Amino acid sequence: MIHSPRVGFIGAGNMARALAVGFSKSGMVAPTSMMASDPVPASRDQFTTETGSPTTVANEEVVAESKYVFLCTKPQILPAIMPSIRPADDSGQVYVSIAAGVSLATLEQGLGTRQIIRVMPNTPCLVQQGASAYAPTDEVTEEDCGFVERLLACVGLSIRVPENQLDAVTGLSGSGPAYIFQIIEGLSDGGVQAGLPRDAATQLAAHTMLGAVQLFLQSGKHPGELKDMVASPGGTTIAGIAELERHGLRSALIDAVVAATERSKELGKQ
After folding, report:
1. In the prediction, which pLDDT does 3 show?
2. Is 175 strand, coil or helix?
3. Other C-beta atoms within 10 Å of 66: how many?
4. Integer Cα distance of 70 and 8 in angstroms
5. At 9, is the secondary structure helix, strand, or coil?
6. Which of 9, 52, 67, 163 is the Cys-Cys partner for 5 at CB 3.0 to 4.6 Å?
7. How far apart are CA 19 and CA 122, in angstroms?
8. What tens digit of pLDDT does each residue of 71-106 get?
9. Which of the four pLDDT bands, split at 50, 70 and 90, describes residue 143?
10. Which domains does the chain have, with CATH numbers?
């Protein structure tokens, strides 16, 4: 186990547990070097069961014991608790917020520090296949940014972007899993209509998507090139693609990402 600074979590829900499990499995942070706080006993118990890390009801204890403090509460709860988790002078904590729509400026005002990194993760972090983007303030050191990026990479892809791009990240990868689930469901429905049993149709749809994604990532080819490899002249695939084009699949996905991005901007202003 590599020695690392202590990591704390304000909130011990699904995403906090996913992050903690990923950090521990990777060997970057020992379970004994992590701690979470949560007012709900069941959440604390589940966090300890899944991670082997201690928990507390006191947010202040997590802050005092941690170098990197992950803020994993709901966005609407965060303003009420920020006064209680402000760092002591020169205590050196770096705050990492996954609260959607809560800007760096709002976090700075509430926490009284500029040592903050804002992150937009997504739900596949729960199976260490997430896609996260992060934006730090200009006072966070490159060393701290690098450590947090490596932590996030324990649960999937991690990239750095300017804060003004995080709404677009929310619209694409933050909301994107829901779009993918709808596509899987739609493909399954098509299989059922064509005569397949539901269980078989759903498994085939899901694994077809999984295999296609792995082929894309490993081949390094443009998705259009891979599509052309499947679509033979006058064959079955090009007939299906023609239907997708007729119904506007690509334009619908573009519009979905843009609509979710705009909604993220609206929520950030509330």
Report:
1. 60
2. coil
3. 23
4. 6
5. strand
6. 67
7. 11
8. 999 888 898 999 889 887 767 899 999 988 899 999
9. very high
10. 7-161 (3.40.50.720), 176-269 (1.10.3730.10)
